[in-house]
Amino acid sequence: MPKIQNVNPSEIRKPGFIEFDRIPVNQYNKSIDEEKNNFSNGDFIRIYHDMVIIREFETMLNLIKTTNEYRGIPYNHPGPAHLSIGQEASAVGMAYNLDTDDFIFGSHRSHGEILAKGLSAIHKLEEDALYEVMRNYFGGAALRVVEKGFTGSVKEVAKHFLLYGALAEIFARENGFNKGLGGSMHAFFTPFWNISQQCHRRRVG
To answer: Got the DSSP string for the chain?
Structure first.
């Protein structure tokens, strides 16, 4: 937005019309068998994998909000937790069809959208780019926590990094993706939405 913008009221306020072309509604009519031809078994497993991660993440948040613990670990979270349980498929389906340089804007219940887009980016990016993002983000503070004692692949580290960074943000912790200032409703992680730089390889384990 420019600092100075000339507005001519006689032009802006003159009578006019907003016109639309026809918008198709309820036009999708493919069968399951027809749609299955567009995906491999690996695609379906990945889609289900991402949906399960989102469901468990939000189930954990719900238990913490309602019982003040998760799997025997006590925690009191007085802040908001606007869950999207039951909407995992829409978030994963959206992210599945987007590229790593596509940006999204989350809804009011955006935990699933953040995780779905992040998991999609992790799947599509080279390990070099993934590790460079994690290493450089806030000086690698979150990465150091995630890497401690972990011996998995860069892709697996990136999943832990995504979950840890999102959860730390929701819990208003400094290692959150936005230093804990965004919280549940304003969390975002721009690097996983748009990465184009060339990076050097670094493997974990």
So the answer is: --S-----HHHHTS-----------S-----HHHHHTT--HHHHHHHHHHHHHHHHHHHHHHHHHHHSEETTEE----S-----TT-HHHHHHHHHTS-TT------SS-HHHHHHHHHHHHHHS-HHHHHHHHHHGGGGHHHHHHHTT--S-HHHHHHHHHHHHHHHHHTT-TTSTTTTSSTTTS---GGGT------------
| Residue 73, both tokens | 């670990």
- In the chain, where the domains are located: 41-69+79-192
- Looking at residue 168, its pLDDT comes to 94
At 103-140, the pLDDT tens digits run 888 777 888 999 999 999 999 999 999 999 999 999 99
**Terminal-residue alpha carbon distance, the chain:** 47
pTM: predicted TM-score of the whole model, two decimal places: 0.79
d(CA 62, CA 127): 33
Sole residue written with tokens 């990136």 = 158
CA quadruple 80, 161, 49, 34: dihedral sign: positive
For the cut 60, the answer to whether the pLDDT of residue 165 exceeds it is: yes
Q: Check if the beta carbon of residue 114 is closer than 8 Å to that of residue 106.
A: yes
Query: Do the beta carbons of residue 58 and residue 51 sit within 8 Å?
Result: no
Which two tokens mark 119?
Answer: 């998991």
